[in-house]
Amino acid sequence: MEQHPLITLLISHLLPLTAQSKKMSGEMTSAAPKLRAIVAGATGATGKPLVELLLRSPDVEQVTTLGRRPVSVPDHLANSPKLKQISPVDFEALDAKDFEGHNAAFCVLGTTRKSAGSAAEFERIDKGFAVNFLNEAKKSGVQHCSLLTSQGASSSSWFLYMRVKGEIEEAVKAMAFQSLDIFRPGMLGRGEAARPVEKFFGVFTSVLKTPLLAAAMLSTAIDAIQSNSTTLRTFGSSECKQIGTKFQQSLEQDQKPDKE
Description:
- This protein is of the alpha/beta class.
- 46% of the residues lie in helices and 15% in strands.
- The protein has eight helices and nine strands.
- The strands form two sheets. A seven-stranded parallel beta sheet has the order 3-2-1-4-5-6-9, sandwiched between helices. Strands 7-8 form a two-stranded parallel sheet.
- Strand 7 (188-189), helix 6 and strand 8 form a beta-alpha-beta unit.
- Helix 4 (119-139) packs parallel to helix 5 and helix 7 (210-227) packs across helix 8.
- The N and C termini lie far apart (60 Å).
């Protein structure tokens, strides 16, 4: 039976609209997932700018900090509904409930042998706290991990600091997060919080400013969550500068007030 020309015409107009409607519906239901981040080391030189960026980013919907004390944030972000601060925390007896519902863990914990008081205490704090934190995150179903260590990190190093950082990396790799980003910066620019050796070498060599490092950590974590990737990536200072600078510029541009 031959189809009436008017019916054919109607179908030819309606089919593209139906396809477009389905496409738009699909786009609406498959919005990019947002980060639900939990952070250890939030009061440190890298942790503080990281928390601020997490609160500012539209790609983040939840920020939980674990620490011995709350992290101070700018006044305009202090009452953000995203932010939940849990303190004081015993990193040797963490509460699994604090990790529920998160998909990204940021470990920016770090100390020095001098601050810890001895080599044994340095290892207990620097390695023990980090491994406990990330092990609990993995058990709670966290998908992505961003880990801050150091340039030269190696479990076979003769130097205590580098050896411990390398042992942390190996322990976290064995946890098998879906995606793991390891950051191995060289000399850091901590501003007023700079250590004496950093101030000295900062005169002769370029340093990676901690806000740039924090921006790189957030940018790569967003990429990992939104792409649902299965990756193990390592970033040095030069990559962090490039990624961090690009992310900061993009965030600033997105948050500029519209000109009338």
